[in-house]
Amino acid sequence: xxxxxxxxxIIILGTLTALGPFSIDMYLPGFPAIAKxxxxxxxxxxxxxxxxFIGISAGQLLYGPLMDRFGRKKPLYIGLVGYLLASVACxxxxxxxxxxxxRFIQAVCSCAAAVASVAMVRDLFPVQxxxxxxxxxxxxxxxxxxxxxxxGGYVTAGFGWEAVFLILAAMAAxxxxxxxxxxxxxxxxxxxxxxxxxxxxxxxxxxxxEPHFYTYAFSGAVSFSGLLAYVSGSPLLFMEIFQVNxxxxxxxFAFLSIGLIGASQVNSIMLRRxxxxxxxxxxxxxxxxxxxxxxxxxxxxxxxLYATIACIFLFLSxxxxxxxxxxxxxxxxFTKNAGSASALMGASQMGIGxxxxxxxxxxxxxxxxxxxxxxxxxxxxxxxxxxxxxxxIQARGIHYQADSTAAGVVH
Length: 411
Known about the structure:
Shape: globular
Main location: membrane
Number of strands: 2
CATH topology: Growth Hormone, Chain: A
Membrane topology: Multi-pass membrane protein
Number of domains: 1
Distance between the termini: 32 Å
GO biological process, one term: xenobiotic detoxification by transmembrane export across the plasma membrane
Radius of gyration: 20 Å
Protein name: MFS transporter
CATH architecture: Up-down Bundle
Keywords: Cell membrane, Membrane, Transmembrane, Transmembrane helix, Transport
Structural class: mainly alpha
CATH class: Mainly Alpha
Number of helices: 14
CATH superfamily: MFS general substrate transporter like domains
Strand order of the largest sheet: 1-2
């Protein structure tokens, strides 16, 4: 693979991965405007975010088997076209109920991009490079929370929140062209792969029985829910509690994303000296400490705007180490069923994240305590899952060693 081809693949896969984050982040500054136009509250508007996460979680379980059966690109085309149409429909929603439903449809379609990007990393690159590739994808993806809310703030202020969804539709059209022209089909269709519920569920069960998968996928997913709790709660925290405007909120959100992006790139350097298993433990311990400090600070009123930003920055930095290593370790045992494995991994991330955002909406009390509590709890539960799962892995004496062809089992 030439360097030019390598970079092209990373960019296209990165844009596929970034479609979901753009869909989440770009309309956040418009929450107050949406609430006003649709005669509802910011807490009700946050349910459009919850429905999006639920849609991604459910949709990935659909697209995983489809991509193992028909190859990666055909289901991807269908998903991108559906996303484009749903985005246009969101721009013309006239009630909060309609927007919640349309966001669910938009999410189901967008997750085709998420599943394809993760599976194609496993298809196109050597296993030992997967963690590094995921870190590079996070660099591309990381641009989205820096750009999306900032652009969304200016677009909302200048043209209204509806324009945000029209921009998302245009992005989907551009990505569709890039996929067609620059992305190879990385997995041949498998006519033997059954789409009947029983064999699909059987493959999912097989993936779930793998200790490496459930240890790292679920610890990574629970840790990731802390990020989604922050994303869902940030409009209330910054625009209502700290009274910043849409544009200022976009810049704050962009700055906080630097922690996540920067840490993901430091992770690439650390992988030269440390194993992914060691890095993820250290990251979760730090995440728990920072989350606890943040929760205590919020509960006792110790934190002003800048101290709050600092705590969240450090918390997100920990996730920059957790996510790429958890993703790589989760998929290491799989070759043939990489699509199903990546779908389950993504579904667990978004499903648990959706639960966190629903809980946040239900317990909303116009303070940041529910958000901070969920962030701290996510780190604690993720660390417990990781430690317990690693004990199972060690007891079985199985380790997946990355080599240039596949993950080999070392007893």
